Amino acid sequence: MMTRFRRTATVDEDVLTRRLLAVLTATSEYRARLDEALDVVKEVAARPDVYLYVAEPGNRRFHLEHTRARPAADPSRMAPGPMQTVLEGGAEWSVPTPPFEIARIDDDANPRVVSSPVGQLYSLPLAAGDPERPGGLIGLVRVGPVADQEVPRAVVRAYESIASALTLVVGQARREEELRQRLASATAQVEASRKLAGSAVDVERLVALLLEMAIAGTRTEAGFVAVRSESGELAVRAATGMPDGFAESVDLSPESGLFDWSAAEGGALFLRDLEAAERLGVRSILAVPLMEAGEPLGVFALVTFAEGADFDDHDLSLLEAFAEQIRLMLYNAQLFGSFTERYLTTVEGLAHALDARRPDTLGHHHAVSAVAEAIAREAGLGEPEAEAVRVAGLIHDVGLAGSSEGSWESDVEHPTVGASLVAHLPLHPGVSGAVATHHEWFDGWGFPAGMSGEEIPPTGRALAVAEFLVELASPDAVRPGWPRDKLAAELIQRSGSQFDPTVADAAARLLAKDALPLPAVAITTQET
Amino acid sequence: MDHEISEQRGVKVMHLHGPIDVSRAMELRDLLGAQIDSASARVLVDLTDVSLIDSSGIGILVTAHRRADGQGARFGLAGAAGTVARVFEMTRTNKLLSLYDTVEEGVAALGD
After folding, report:
1. Phi and psi of A230, rounded to 5°?
2. What is d(CA A138, CA A158) in angstroms, rounded to the nearest whole number?
3. How are beta strands B42-53 and B74-78 bridged, if at all?
4. Contact A261/B at CB under 8 A
5. SS3 category, A112
6. Predicted local distance difference test score (pLDDT) of residue A197
7. Which of A369, A364, A390 is nearest to A471 (CA)?
8. CA distance A495 to A65
9. Beta pairing, strands A295-304 & A284-292
10. Separation CA A473–CA A521 (nearest Å)
11. Rounded Cα distance, B50 and B19, in Å
12. What is the pLDDT confidence band of residue A73, given thresholds at 50, 70 and 90?
């Protein structure tokens, strides 16, 4: 038997509208906001259960976003439809299930009565503007259960008086929730990228992502992030919506640039060059300093160009939240970057010390590094890979440290040991990859893993050729260094077996032009 | 920009209205420049009815503050609340400027 709920005699719509608008400031918790908003709908319709449906992208369907219904234990909560088991108050209850998805029809734009598994409900539109236009109908509230065949005029009138505020609250709560989720996802990406690659490119990509989210969240039009170098100069690292050429042409110098900003004044930041802002067509600019331990890291600025697009309190809260995320990201990148640099210097020092143990290997790592980088570029590897090859060259045999010289184990395992020393660093993966594979052969006959062909990273294939050339070009106790023509012949012979033919060809081209920085060797074989 | 100037105990109180953004900052610069004209100038800007201030408006206020300092004049701000007060904090300029809660406090501090 359906319990009858008596409609309240009078509903003060102004009070309810104010209550609705207060939801956005009372709490920032998404579900709590929806609870409050749907409670107001309950009062307007004088019914106990409310279901909020929101439009999915494409506006063809709605999905159930939130339910504000009687407790599961309420015996009056019965309906003809299927039941769902829910956990509430530590117990399991069977309650009627509203549909999770409904297809949109034209009638959804108007108040109407619908049948559902949870009984008959008033279906009321949540319209931001014209509900007939795309994006106009952002959702539906369905409230009930009801016995009426159509929505009473008094309910329609009362609902209409709060509909704008309700739409605003639901729309804003959803936008902020989406931003929060994207922010959490971006933060997770920052963490992940710091562990995996951690390159400057990643940091810039994520700063740009946060900037775009901040612009969307504050409904401003443009913005930029400028980062301070060690010399104190600011440079734009991400910009969205700014005039063409802004990043390259804007003067951000501490003495005369767009902003006045100095650590000596506690990092206080304000616009200095009003005329420059006017020339850019800026209507309003809000720039906040990004500080860490009293030291300036950078500037985060949001910009509007249109009349009336001012910042409000809500925008400031979002701006603060995004500024904090960007600050953290820059700080972490700086901290981890300097740690990596110091650690790498230590590993390079170790490799250099290994070279110094024998006169004929002195400078070996530096030579391999220079030759490998040149070959990588000639073979068409991109800038990040070529740089990874250069770094790998500086440390590729460091795994030999600590092993007894000449032992079989140290020979076989040194690529793996060396790679493990740098694998945890936020470097390009090609660095540890090259160290680990520089003794692999293209045909699978190398060591330590017996990898072949494309299994071996391109950086490893380039490093392998470089080490081979440097070793043979360098004289040792029992043989003189090989001349260029002999190196080239040997290289071609081993192409396809030991070496990737593409890389071997690239090295041969450089040899022919004498463009490889090999240890000084004779150009041609001297007949004796 | 909309403003009125009154004098209280030897302090010129400039009461501003509406937002202070790039387009209005130019005008504010001229207004303040005309008031801070000698070592004896005492100028208090009343921000009670300012709805928003951006980095350009703050730039003008800091410049006025420095100019007054350089001339031996006195310059202060009163009535910054809500969004306006938050902008001062977020830009860390609240420590740089002389901010007073009310016009009365500002006049008492700047007056002879």
Report:
1. -60, -30
2. 20
3. parallel
4. no
5. strand
6. 46
7. A364
8. 62
9. antiparallel
10. 6
11. 6
12. low
- The per-residue pLDDT for A10 is 52
Greater confidence (B99 vs A211) lies with: B99
Per-residue pLDDT at A184: 73
When scoring B1, B17, B20, B22 by the number of chain A Cβ atoms within 10 A, the one with the most, hence best to mutate, is B22
CA distance to partner chain A, nearest, from residue B43 (Å): 21
- Cross-chain Cβ contact B55/A278 below 8 Å: no
Residues A250 and A275 sit within 8 Å (Cβ to Cβ): no
Question: What pLDDT does A504 receive?
Answer: 96
Q: What is the pLDDT of residues A4-37, one digit of tens each?
A: 444 444 557 778 888 888 888 777 788 999 999 9
pLDDT exceeds 90 at position A336: no
A522, pLDDT greater than 60: no
**Are B25 and A274 inside 8 Å of each other by CB?**
yes
Residue A292's DSSP bridge partners are A295
Cβ atoms of A398 and A351 within 8 Å: the answer is: yes
Q: ipTM > 0.90?
A: yes
Mutate to test the interface with B, among A265, A278, A284 (most CBs of B within 10 A): A284
Structure tokens at A384: 């990040």
Beta bridge partners of B25: none
Q: How far is CA B109 from CA A312, A423, B42, B43, B89, in A?
A: 31, 63, 10, 11, 21
> Cβ distance A180 to A93 under 8 Å?
no
Determine, for residues A274 and B22 on separate chains, whether the beta-carbon distance falls below 8 Å. Answer: yes
User: Are residues A425 and A196 in contact, defined by beta-carbon separation less than 8 angstroms?
Assistant: no
- Distance CA(A8)–CA(A420), nearest Å, equals 73
Q: Which residues pair with A291 in a beta bridge?
A: A296
Helix count and strand count (H, E) for chain B: 4, 5
Place of tokens 């939801």: A23
Q: Which residue has the tokens 């740009």?
A: A208
**Interface membership of A277 toward B (CB under 8 Å):** yes
What distance in Å separates the CA atoms of residue A203 and residue A248, rounded to the nearest whole number?
Answer: 19
Positive or negative: CA dihedral A86, A88, A94, A100: negative
Asked if A29 has any chain B CB less than 8 Å from its own CB, the reply is: no
Give the number of beta-carbon pairs within 8 Å between A and B: 91
Contacts made by residues A469-477, CB under 8 angstroms, sequence distance 24+: A469/A371, A469/A507, A469/A511, A469/A516, A469/A518, A470/A364, A470/A367, A470/A368, A470/A371, A470/A518, A470/A519, A471/A364, A473/A518, A473/A519, A473/A521, A474/A360, A474/A361, A474/A364, A474/A367, A474/A519, A475/A360, A476/A360, A477/A360
This model's pTM is above 0.90 = no
The reported pLDDT for the residue numbered A1 is: 39
**C-beta contacts of A90-95 below 8 A and 24+ residues apart:** A95/A69
Find the closest chain B residue to A281 by CA distance.
B22
